[in-house]
Amino acid sequence: MSARWAAERLAERGALLQACVEALAGPVAELAAETLDTLRAGGRLFFAGNGGSAADAQ
Where in the chain are the domains? Predict the structure, then answer.
């Protein structure tokens, strides 16, 4: 494996990560705001998952 090959793969992953940031930043911020509104209003949040994903959700 050459340094150039590694640099190209890392650049590809960086571009993918940036696309994810651009696509998900708004929805994540909206979810965070809704979560805060729910908790401040005395509501409850329920987490669901299977095994490790349930623990990660908490």
Answer: 3-57
